[in-house]
Design brief:
The termini are far apart. The chain folds into two domains: about 5-95, Uridine Diphospho-n-acetylenolpyruvylglucosamine Reductase, domain 2, CATH 3.30.43.10; about 100-220, Uridine Diphospho-n-acetylenolpyruvylglucosamine Reductase, domain 3, CATH 3.30.465.10. A five-stranded antiparallel sheet has the order 5-6-10-8-9. A four-stranded mixed sheet has the order 1-2-4-3, with helices on one face. It is globular, with a radius of gyration of 20 Å. The longest helix is centred in the first third of the chain and has 13 residues, at about 55-65. A hairpin with a 5-residue loop joins strand 8 and strand 9 (about 180-185). With about 250 residues, it is of the alpha+beta class. About 30% of the residues lie in helices and about 20% in strands.
Length: about 250
Amino acid sequence: MDKSALQKKLVKMLGKDKVLYDELDLMYYSYDSSFLTKLEPGNPWAVVMPRSTEEVQQIMKLAFDNDIDIIPRGAGTGETGGCVALKGGIVLDLSTWDEIVEIDANNMQVILRPGVIHAHLNKELAKYNLFFPPDPGSSQMCTIGGMVANNASGLRAVKYGCTEQYILGLEVVLANGDIITTGGMKARCIKNVSGLNLTKLMVGSEGILGVITKIRLRCWPRPKGRGIAMAVFDNLDDAPATVLDV
C-alpha cells in the first residue's frame, strides 16, 4: 500500500478529524525533544489520533496486514527519538486521549487513558489527598502513557522509585490487533501475577511490544508538608552517602 492509499484508508476508517497527512502537520511530528531529531527529522506518512481501544485495534490490524510501521507517541517530550518515524509509517498520537476513567480513593488506585498529563493527574488526585509519586522534569507536558512506555522516574526516584513500581495492570493492543490485559487491570488486587509478569515486561518497552491503551496505577497519600534544603559537602563521596542515610 502506497502513502496516498494509506492516507485515504485511514480517513475512511477514522474520519478526517482524526487523521493528519498535510506536510506541515507531519513536520510537527518529525522530531521530539532530542537534539538529534532536530538535525535529522523524520516525517511519517500519516498521523492518527484514536480515542478508543477499538480504533487502535483497527489501525494496528491495517498496519500489520500491510507491513507498515507504527510509532506510538505521547507528548513528544522524550529525548531519545523514540516517537519519531525514521522510515515513514503511521504515528499513533495518543496525547488527545486524556480521560481519567476512575479514581478509587479508598484503594488508592486510578484507571486512566494514556494521554493524561502527569501534572493534571496529580491535580485531580490532590482532591482526594493522593498523588502519583514519579516526578519527571516534563511533568507539565508529559503523558502517563509515555511515562509507562519509558519507565520514567525523576527527581523523587531515590525516595519513591520509578513508574514501574506503581503500575498494577495494563490494557495493550498487540501488533496484530489482539487486545490483552495484564496484571490487575480488571481487579483491585495489589498482587495479581500468575506466571510471566507481562505488566513489568510492557513497562519500559517503548512501544515495541504493543500500544498501551489503558492503565491502572496506584497512588500514595500526599505528604503533609514539603520543603527544600541545600547542603554543602567537602568531597563528592559524602553527598550520595548522605542521601542514602536520609
